[in-house]
Structure to design on (360 residues):
């Protein structure tokens, strides 16, 4: 039988959602049966902009009105004529939008950070579970081709059991231009960016049992911290350093790359800025792999590696939806990434090592 088209709606037609829409439409062009059939933004100008850009007729300034418009009439006796919603708003809106979608029986993809506190995160996860809908968090950094290749090389045993890691994200990119709210927030680099890098650490080395952190604000024009240095101890015994900065001046700015160093018992991995992955073997010698991302046609420098990861995440989500498996970054999993963010702020405040909460 021919696969049914998976029908979705997008809520939040902002800066980043453009990438998500581009990715859905590319997947559709590539022959995947998925379609965004409605758009929602409380700002009519953003809504009109997306309507024109992506040629979607059905638009709503209110999410409740949108879900009501699609209520009933779903295929296979479903509650809704929507299969999923892609929530791309900033975090504050998630606490209302996630339960709303869940109550309409619609599967959910939600942007990171998916909740403003662990308590809210727990409630949203439980709510989705109760309503029988899936909650996948749009955590895309582990899907960047260079990062993914590093994860796979490690998982394939290329360097044996790792004992040390460093994941480093340091640049001087003006993030405040496209996302002005980032200059306002009290919590900045750990919550907005560090969250991704901490997630890479979890993807590489598993859960974290202790975390220390120091932060700094170098740019005087912002409210939050723009530098954070974290030390993680993982259950597996790996010690990892996760360091982030938006205050680092480099002639050859690496934005938006995360550079990775891993030392294992049988060799070492180095992910370099020129998109080479070096695999140094215990026997000597070094294999060099080209892990440059295949840039989608719609991508633009310097965002290409991130835009490629949005496409990769959404492609995997769609595959998971079809196969009835959950994505790696489902709510329960992402809770543990969010817990590292909370632990990092606490560790920075008390200048002590903290034991992060964990999803049981
Ligand atoms: P933005 O402010 O540009 O866009 C958010 C949009 O949501 C706005 O158009 C706003 O009007 C709309 N909105 C807010 N509340 C709403 C509601 N209740 N109903 C309908 N519409 C609502 O923000 P952005 O920079 O695009 O960021 C959005 C999210 O994406 C953030 O959580 C951010 O952390 C995340 N983000 C992720 C990545 C990534 O690589 N995964 C990169 C950038 C941003």
């Amino acid at each position: 039988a021919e696969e049914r088209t998976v029908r979705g709606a997008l809520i939040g037609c902002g800066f980043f959602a453009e990438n998500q829409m581009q990715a859905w439409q590319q997947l559709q062009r590539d022959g995947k049966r998925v379609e965004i059939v409605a758009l929602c933004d409380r700002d009519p100008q953003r809504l009109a902009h997306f309507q024109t850009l992506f040629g979607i007729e059905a638009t709503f300034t209110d999410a409740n009105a949108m879900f009501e418009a699609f209520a009933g009439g779903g295929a296979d006796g479903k509650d809704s004529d929507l299969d999923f919603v892609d929530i791309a708003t900033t975090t504050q809106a998630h606490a209302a939008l996630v339960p709303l979608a869940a109550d309409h029986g619609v599967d959910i993809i939600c942007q990171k950070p998916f909740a403003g506190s662990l308590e809210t995160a727990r409630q949203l996860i439980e709510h989705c579970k109760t309503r029988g809908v899936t909650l996948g968090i749009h955590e895309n950094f582990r899907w960047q081709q260079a990062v993914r290749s590093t994860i796979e090389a490690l998982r394939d045993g290329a360097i044996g059991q790792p004992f040390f890691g460093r994941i480093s994200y340091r640049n001087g990119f003006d993030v405040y231009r496209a996302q002005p709210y980032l200059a306002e927030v009290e919590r900045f680099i750990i919550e907005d960016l560090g969250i991704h890098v901490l997630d890479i650490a979890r993807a590489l080395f598993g859960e974290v049992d202790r975390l220390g952190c120091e932060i700094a604000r170098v740019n005087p024009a912002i409210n939050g911290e723009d530098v954070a240095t974290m030390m993680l101890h993982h259950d597996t015994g790996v010690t990892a350093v996760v360091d982030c900065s938006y205050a680092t001046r480099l002639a050859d700015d690496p934005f938006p790359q995360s550079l990775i160093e891993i030392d294992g018992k049988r060799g070492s991995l180095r992910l370099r800025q020129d998109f080479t992955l070096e695999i140094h073997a215990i026997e000597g010698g070094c294999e060099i792999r080209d892990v440059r991302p295949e840039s989608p046609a719609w991508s633009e420098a310097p965002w290409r590696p991130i835009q490629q990861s949005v496409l990769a995440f959404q492609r995997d989500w769609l595959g998971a939806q079809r196969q009835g498996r959950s994505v790696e970054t489902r709510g329960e999993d992402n809770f543990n990434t969010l817990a590292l963010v909370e632990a990092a702020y606490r560790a920075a405040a008390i200048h002590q090592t903290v034991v992060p909460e964990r999803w049981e």
About this structure: The mean pLDDT is 97.
